Amino acid sequence: MADEYFVLICDNVPTAVVLTDFGPQVIEVVKVLRRRTGLSLWQSRSLLDRLPATILEDVSEDLAEATVCELLEVGAKAEVRRQA
């Protein structure tokens, strides 16, 4: 009797957006955080005090990439991390 092994391929791997540095334009970064996460002004600003901070979890790769691009445009440093 032969053993069969299967590899599961998942295209929708959940990703997270991690903010690692807010850069010189703090106000612009807070605006992006508010727009992308729906957090209040105070909550968005408090995330910057706890870097690195995961700002989005379990989102599609497209949304994660768009958020990272928007953060990079305003001078912040962010990255997309795949979740296990």
Protein architecture, described:
This protein is α+β, with helices and mostly antiparallel strands and 84 residues long. It has a single domain (15-82), classed as Ribosomal Protein L30, Chain: A (2-Layer Sandwich), CATH 3.30.1390. Helix content is 38%, strand content 24%. The protein has 3 helices and 3 strands; from the N terminus they run βααβαβ. The protein has helices at residues 26-37, 41-47, 61-73, and strands at 15-21, 53-59, 77-82. A 3-stranded antiparallel sheet has the order 2-1-3, with helices on one face. The protein is elongated and about 60 Å long. The termini are far apart. The mean pLDDT is 89.
User: What's the CATH first level?
Assistant: Alpha Beta
Mean pLDDT: 89
Low-pLDDT runs: none
Radius of gyration: 16 Å
Task: Tell the overall outline.
Answer: elongated
The residue fraction in helices comes out at 25-40%
CATH architecture: 2-Layer Sandwich
Straight-line N-to-C gap:
33 Å
The CATH homology group name: Ribosomal protein L7/L12, C-terminal domain/Adaptor protein ClpS
Oligomeric description of these chains: single chain
DSSP strand tally = 3
Biggest beta sheet summary: 3 strands, antiparallel
Features:
84 residues; Ribosomal Protein L30, Chain: A; alpha+beta; three-stranded antiparallel sheet
Mind sketching the topology for me?
Elements: E1 15-21, H1 26-37, H2 41-47, E2 53-59, H3 61-73, E3 77-82
Antiparallel strand pairs: 1-2, 1-3
Summarize the structure.
By secondary structure, the protein is an alpha+beta fold. It has helices at residues 26-37, 41-47, 61-73; strands at 15-21, 53-59, 77-82.
